[in-house]
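Researcher: I'm comparing several assemblies side by side, and this is the next one on my list. It has 575 residues spread over two chains. Same procedure as the others: predict the full complex and return the structure.
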Amino acid sequence: MIYNMDFETMPREALESIQLRRLQTTIERVYATVPFYRKKFDEAGLKPSSIKSLEDLNRIPFTTKQDLRDNYPFGMFAVPMRNVVRIHASSGTTGKPTVVGYTARDIQTWAELMARSLAAGGATGEDIIHNAYGYGLFTGGLGVHYGAEKLGASVIPVSGGNTKRQIMIMEDFGPTILTATPSYTLHLAEVAKEMGVPFENLKFKYGIFGAEPWSEKMRQQIQDMLHLVAVDIYGLSEVMGPGVSIECHEAQKGLHVFEDHFIPEIINPQTGEKLPYGQVGELVFTSITKEAFPVIRYRTRDITSLNPEPCICGRTLVRMQKVTGRSDDMLIIRGVNVFPSQIESILMQIEGVEPHYQLFVDREDNLDVLTVMVEVNPTMFSDEVKVLQHQERKIASEIKDYLGVTVTVKLAEPKSIARSEGKAVRVIDRRKI
Amino acid sequence: MKVEQISIFLENRTGRIAEVTSILADAGINIRALSLADTSDFGVLRLIVDNNLKAETALKQNGFTVGKTQVVAVAVEDKPGGLHKILEILKTARINVEYMYAFIQSGINAVMIFRFDNIDKAVQVLLENNIEVIEGKKLYTM
């Protein structure tokens, strides 16, 4: 079902004219209200009036995660706090999160885009949605929740964790749509199997999965194990949250970007040069309707390409391919963003711990497992095993406290972690996604 | 009355202990007593050797983390109840044993190495109860 026929199937020409008008309004607003953008524009010799066509977007400098970090927590907000009705946050590169805000109208926009997304994924107002995305500072849970209500569906706000209880709810409440991270979805399937609950007896028809990269192979696995049609949803809190783009269940081939709210571009991550349709590069977004936290040419670091070909579902919106990688070293562990530099700064704060570490990422029983190897040094060494084990637990608990991600800490012999010239190999990702 | 023990951090990898013994052999060091405490990931090798300084230097040169701890060596009568007698004394005095390990001195006594959290009190109690506490110098060359 297409939730908003007017905007989702609009002829390109009309869409582009709306985009330009909205872009110009956004640029005027951020120039007037966000010192960061005014400074960037002034440095580039641009005025809001310089933006006369969509091509002029090219002239505007990029915004990076570092810029958001420099303006922590509220420096990028374009409205006074009294107009902000919601705050979300995602982890940043130094342990400080990236903070985003929403006005009442932003929340309505987001709900509309999530309603569109759920509908594109197969949901209708008649469905019961089992929402296993985490509720909290993470945008996943509440994002889906508001969209489900807007669509008129019945939403079960089950959030993440407590897996056995989730299976019981699935059996007893009969939800028809599942929303979760793909890795947690596979975990749900395994636990259901252990409990002797066959998924084919449940009522699921469609699943809408995202917040972490997943492959076509994983889609097949999910569809086979859960007996539903699986689609990919994309979003990031800096741009809005889930619902920036969505796969339609008809084609399952690329994610439609809601271009009446966000302008996507693909750039060469090394040169910043804009790339044409079809070429693979880094995805960049400009929000054109957001009030509290507009972003101009925000570099997502996600690697993909754009496809403008018409889709069998009838939507005229451009499609981005499934995200295949990142142009930085960010890891996504069970939906939580983790940068090696964050782990490093936490280790440095623990007395006696040196920043010689290596991260191993594995997928065990379909869940991401992050192992942190830390070298033992004379300060932290003890002849007593319990003291060393206490050190391991202490490091793990510090990381859990700061980043919200559960890790296994293993002590390693001194000098056993390879020192490389220049950039150290910090991460060994052994997941086969 | 105290004995110096050296301890080494080891990852659980094949041949890792052999590397330690090879370093010690090359340095001409004799191992008097040894114990290995292990977890699934790592182990701590504890050694009493005849020349601590030489052993420590050789191991550190080869990149090992070496710790030093004061322990107590106690002569245990080599007969049933020999160890129990000592543990009863410690229990009565409410002295906690962190860990212990033994080696047998051929023909004479068994020697038990104790790691206490309160070593001074432990030595005092043992001496008061006429238990033979072996001096470091004697142990290293026994």
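Model: For your comparison table: Chain A touches chain B at residues 376-378, 381-385, 388-389, 410-416 (CB under 8 Å).
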